[in-house]
Amino acid sequence: MNKFKLVMLSGAWCAFALGMVHSQAVELEVTHWWTSGGEAAAVKVFADAFNDGGDVWADGAIAGGGSIARPVIISRILGGEPMGATQLNQGRQAEELIEEGLMLDLTELAEKEGWRDFVRPAKLLDSCTLDGKIYCVPINIHSFQWMWVSLAAYNKAGLEPPADWYEFVASSQALRGAGIVPLAVGGQAWQLSGMFGTLFAGLSGVDNWRKVYIDRDEDALRGGITANVWRAFGDARDLQAKNNTVQNWNDATTQVINGKAGAQIMGDWAQAEFALAGLTAGKEYDCLPGLGIAPVLDASGDAFYFPKVDDPEIVQAQLRMASMMMSAEIQVAFNLVKGSLPIRGDVDMDEANECMNKGLAVLENENNVLPSGDQTFSPDTQGQLEDLIIEFWSDPDMDPADAQAIFADIILDAD
Amino acid sequence: MNTSKRPNLWLRNMSAKVAAVPMIATALIVFVGCSVWSVVYSFTSSRSLPKENFVGLKQYERLFSSNRWVESVENVFIFGICTLVFSLIVGFSLAVLLDQKIRFENTFRTIFLYPFALSFMVTGLVWQWMLNPQLGVASVVRNLGFENFEILLLSSREYSIYAIVIAGLWQGTGLVMVLMLAGLRGIDQDIWKASRVDGIPAWKTYLFIVVPMMRPVFVTTLVIIASGIVKVYDLVLAMTQGGPGISSEVPAKYVYDYMFGRANLGQGLAASTVMLSTVLIVLIPWSYMEFRDKQEKSV
After folding, report:
1. Which of A28, A56, A350, B214 could form a disulfide with B183 if both were Cys (CB 3.0 to 4.6 A apart)?
2. Which domains does chain A have, with CATH numbers?
3. Chain B neighbors of A382, CB-CB under 8 A
4. Cβ neighbours of residue B244 under 8 Å, at least 6 residues apart?
5. Residue B72: CATH number of its domain
6. Per-residue confidence at A104, pLDDT binned at 50, 70, 90?
7. pLDDT under 50 in chain B at which residues?
8. Does some domain include residue B48?
9. What is the 3-state secondary structure (H, E, C) of A109-158?
10. Is B244 an interface residue toward A (CB < 8 Å)?
């Protein structure tokens, strides 16, 4: 065999092999903004599962968080250069893309696999649905209504760790006496308004929350329950460090991890920080969903969308990916790493830690699930409430009753 | 008849008038037209898109009952007065010092003007870092041994607006200085010789002869500073985001937030209309006076 033939032959083999690969494996670019250590590990669960299925996951992580990634993702879809799949928030922006016919319709797959039967809470799938058709895959549940307690701080002060918000407030003086800041707080507006929302849901319960935020009932707004929440928010204001200069939420969480602060009110993404620091739930830290009083969680989460393309092979691969993300074993594996809760009601979370189990128990009952603020108020009203909350927080002389009056006016005027 | 002797006023200098038409049209359509549009829609309940459902003065009632707007207006007054007074005084003093035929004048001029080359965004970030209670200048001084030293400008409700004033002055005073220096250089040397012959001390010459002669320079500078005050936005955004709480909010930020972030066009336009009318209330009597002065002089 001369050299020429050899080259020809190997070339033909190569072409054949490539052709084989092409007909089976499809490379899909997946854009998302999960770049921190824990988040990247969670993405790897998806990527490995997708690659094991014979396809290729081309990772397109965009650094800098959602506010930077979203415009990039949307302009690429609008500009006719869609990726294979992308993380995107459910809401108005995605809705416009769907109305333009730029997103893949997943209804057929969803019906075949029976997503409606096992996705829990059902509102997660509802927010993926437009005109009866399903356009995205919800993949996890995050919620804000958690309080994280540092057991180390309570040990140091020689106190029993609190079981709810009121016990926490009662123990705050003793914590201060031991040189511990009772409440760790990051000063950014979204954290303060999230904390207020958590106090509201936790202290007043789902029914009152619904009366105020959905029915906008004047008696409830001006009444004792709302007053109680504002007083508690005033307590929280006094429990933070004097001249508090912490801004980022994870810096505040670090104070709880180090035992420098007693507790923090923050979403369950904080749990990834505890895990990263090697802390175990129930041993070094404790968690109180709904502040230990009312079992309430708001259950929002992340979702993946699949931009529409013409190539049927790519569409098949997109459907394979959607199916994989929804499958029971991947849901468990992914959410264990991400620190969030799975969206399926029918999976075993044997490996879930104590906090996750507490969260799952709350979600068992659909009545414990709050609608998120995005759905209840216009951005205008949300902005006004945020202004009020940060004004109250920064001004120690502002009376809770005055704030409550303004709060009621804003909500009663809301459209 | 008179008209037959004098050509029609409208037809004189035809080419110059034709050339000015695009500029006039731009001014009318863009400035006047858009301002009128803004004012009209400030009386509507427009959300993210302009709609003609008029609601009277509702937006204005809401505006003035909002704590944030009242705080914003107070802040822009504090910022405005401090900036005007200090940048004029410091800028003029620096210009006078540079005017003493010193060595390395070019070097000093460059150094003082340099901050002006930075955007407000960068200025704000730099000062935010410097005034940061944990990392900034405060920490340097603490490391020198003064362990209780603290700069709490940025984290205090009472003083956060002054932190913004400081950053604004640092950025803008150089420009005022250069304008003043140009004005000083435009003063005829014979005046200095004359005042020296009369034995008038230098500071008196500056204050009572040179400053009145520099009136046009002061007017120009005033307009530049004043427009900077009204539109201050990015400096606040970079330094404090309006915080702590709402203690360093400014009107321009209110307008921006409501028009874009909070999808309430009517409220944003009502706020911008109030800003516009405040400027006009100051500007109209002033320009009227200026205009009348010139007429009297020409007579």
Report:
1. B214
2. 25-142+300-363 (3.40.190.10), 146-296+377-413 (3.40.190.10)
3. 262
4. A187, A390, A394, B154, B155, B156, B157, B160
5. 1.10.3720.10
6. very high
7. 1, 3, 299
8. no
9. HHHHHCHHHHECCCHHHHCCEECCEECEEECCEECCCEEEEEHHHHHHCC
10. yes
Rounded to an integer, what distance in angstroms lies between the CA atom of residue B54 and that of residue A241? Answer: 48
The string of pLDDT tens digits covering residues A324-346 is 999 998 998 898 888 788 888 88
User: Scanning every residue of chain A, which has its alpha carbon at the shortest distance from the alpha carbon of B132?
Assistant: A245
Token pair for B142: 């603490």
Contact A387 B267 (CB under 8 A): no
Q: How confident is the model at residue A372 (pLDDT cuts 50, 70, 90)?
A: low
Taking an 8 Å cut-off on Cβ atoms, the answer to whether B263 and A380 are in contact is yes
CA distance B140 to B130: 10
Is A378's CB within 8 Å of B47's CB?
A: yes
A236: nearest Cα among A186, A273, A285: A186
Q: Is the pTM of this model over 0.80?
A: no
Q: Is the pLDDT of residue A310 over 80?
A: yes
Q: Is residue B219 part of a domain?
A: yes
Which chain A residues have a beta carbon less than 8 Å from that of B68?
Answer: 387, 391
Burial class (CB in 10 A: 0-12, 13-18, 19+), B134: exposed
- DSSP-derived pairing of the beta strands A129-130 and A85-87: unpaired
pLDDT recorded at residue A42:
87
Q: Do A383 and B134 touch (CB under 8 A)?
A: no
Task: Indicate the residue of B62, B133, B261 with minimum beta-carbon distance to A379.
Answer: B261
Counted across chains A and B, CB pairs separated by less than 8 A come out at: 60
- Residues of A at the B interface, defined by Cβ within 8 angstroms: 187, 189, 243-245, 378-380, 382-384, 387-388, 390-395, 406, 413
E strand or H helix at B186: none
Q: Is B80 on the interface with A (CB under 8 A)?
A: no
Nearest CA in chain B to A394: B245
How many domains are contained in chain B?
1
Lowest mean pLDDT among A154-158, A180-184, A268-272, B108-112: A268-272
- B259: containing domain: 68-273
Q: Which two tokens stand for residue B88?
A: 């004029």
Residues from chain A that touch B133, judged by Cβ atoms under 8 A, are 243, 245
Give contacts of A383 with chain B, Cβ < 8 Å: 257-258, 261-262, 264
pLDDT given for residue A74 in this prediction: 83
Determine, yes or no, domain membership for B92.
Answer: yes
In angstroms, what separates the C-alpha of B87 from chain A's closest C-alpha? 30
The answer to whether residue B9 sits within a structural domain is no
In chain B, which among 162-221 make CB contacts under 8 A with chain A?
Answer: none
ipTM computed for the complex: 0.77
Helix axes B67-98, B160-185, angle to 10 degrees: 40
